[in-house]
Amino acid sequence: MTLSTIKKGPFEGQKPGTSGLRKKTRVFMEPGYLECFVQSTFNAIGGVAGKSLVIGGDGRFYNDKAIQIILKMAAANGAALAVVGQGGLLSTPAVSHLIRKRKTDGGLILSASHNPGGIDEDFGIKYNVANGGPAPESVTARMFDETLKITEYRTIDAPDIALGDLGLHQIGEMQVEIIDPVADYAALMETLFDFGKIKALFAGGFMMRFDAMHAVTGPYAKAILEDRLGAPAGTVINAVPSEDFGGGHPDPNPVWAKALMEEMMSPTAPDFGAASDGDGDRNMIVGRGSYVTPSDSLAVLAANAHLAPAYEAGLAGVARSMPTSAASDLVAQKLGINSFETPTGWKFFGNLLDAGKVTLCGEESAGTGSDHVREKDGLWAVLLWLNILAQRKQSVADILVDHWAEYGRNYYSRHDYEAVPTEAANALMAHLEAQFDSLPGTQWSGLSVRAADSFSYHDPVDGSVSENQGLRISFEGGARAVLRLSGTGTEGATLRVYLEQYAGPDADNSLTAEAALASVRAAVIEITAMQSHIGRTAPDVRT
Ligand code: VG1
Ligand code: CO
């Protein structure tokens, strides 16, 4: 086995986005592209000599090849140990747990999450640090700096590792330990929830459908829901991870999990439905005839978490990303616990969790998690819901109605405008920002603007400041709109418009979201001159 240093790089555009580096798969397959990003990551963390890493991915096209490349590079850079999921598979929350459990120095996750997979679709890579969470901005900034100056990477000439064979392997001086991707994660879940109660729920005839969307959660959901909790075979559908996610987007929302939504809205719907994304860190929750917005899900989980053993003693606090609705704030207020508003992306929750300031975190994009790991965790959210359902013995719809009667309802929807020319999207944002000083007090579609600003986050733990994290407009009467550009896309820009309207406990809480949000939507279209900037006012995806 010979070590070699290959002259390559730098490549343009290797700046990590909201969640790692995402590009077209063919870009990642260009000779040296993945290698230079990985070497830059190693360089940014002071090298990996003597260190240990967890490595795994969501099973998309190029997952296994990328892992072989990374293993050889880690060995050539002097790493001591790589813990790898069998077949190259590991969900994002499972990686987070393994980093913490095995006390490794970090981990690499091969995934573009909810983006589609395949040679003509997307690939991605994320680096997580020793607390198990996504690299914070200080680290991603160093990684990016390294990508700008890299001129060579290190690798070793060695045969590929048989990723299917459990146990110890060797590349040069580095040990590779291939592990069951599910076992440790499933054991962790068992410590958090009352598996006996959930088992009894299923034994009593409770029916559930879980759509794994042909992605990594399939093996986890089958092992936990069907094998351990006794849900009937067939509860988990699309359970085998495929390289192209069956040709769809593994994005757990009513648009991409359409078949599940139709089943849940039909007269023969099971009691409970759920779906998860490509890398298993996000979740969709839906009851019979009743879709739960991710913002409401976070609030309901916060209000009821004490019904699960892990959270019996109560929560330290709840954090949500800024575009997420304020529903969880209302719960925190009532419980008398901390609440925080962070920028989009899980990396901002890490400090709050590490400092013990919060127990639950969530994002409107269907990411929910707790201090059991340092990532959002799709199956965890599903299990917490199941634990709550087993305790409350009520339908999802009834739980929501009760919740709104107590706290009021934050009507909510996210509208995505995809593949917008980048210049047009930037111009729309600039046009909005330029009006900030004059907007307060003005009227738009019957709504009066209360305030408008660009969100800056001051991390209360390390004092770091993150600016330009989304533009927000709040209106008199409890409406709010947030606009930001996606940091996970690979083509043009995706404009995300987040709409919210609060209705108090005594207001009509039975409207459709569309009706309740009509005014704030019309106001945003007007204020941003949307039609003239991007040539349309109808979104591609509404969630
Ligand atoms: C999106 C979501 C964000 C989430 C991120 C990564 O980012 O909006 O809430 O944290 O994806 O999720 P953006 O920048 O496109 O809005 V995942 O499941 O890709 O790790
Ligand atoms: Co994901």
Automatic annotation (TrEMBL):
It is an enzyme of class 5 (isomerase). Residues 14-153, 185-286, 295-407 form the Alpha-D-phosphohexomutase alpha/beta/alpha domain. This is phosphoglucomutase (alpha-D-glucose-1,6-bisphosphate-dependent). Its EC number is 5.4.2.2. Its cofactor is Mg(2+). GO terms for biological process: carbohydrate metabolic process. InterPro entries: A-D-PHexomutase_a/b/a-I, A-D-PHexomutase_a/b/a-I/II/III, A-D-PHexomutase_a/b/a-II, A-D-PHexomutase_a/b/a-III, A-D-PHexomutase_C_sf, A-D-PHexomutase_CS, Alpha-D-phosphohexomutase_SF, PGM. One of its GO terms (molecular function) is magnesium ion binding. Belongs to the phosphohexose mutase family. Residues 1-20 are annotated as: Disordered. The keyword Protein biosynthesis does not apply. It comes from Roseobacter denitrificans (strain ATCC 33942 / OCh 114). GO terms for cellular component: cytosol. Keywords: Isomerase, Magnesium, Metal-binding, Phosphoprotein. PROSITE patterns: PGM_PMM. It catalyses: alpha-D-glucose 1-phosphate = alpha-D-glucose 6-phosphate. It comes from the Bacteria.
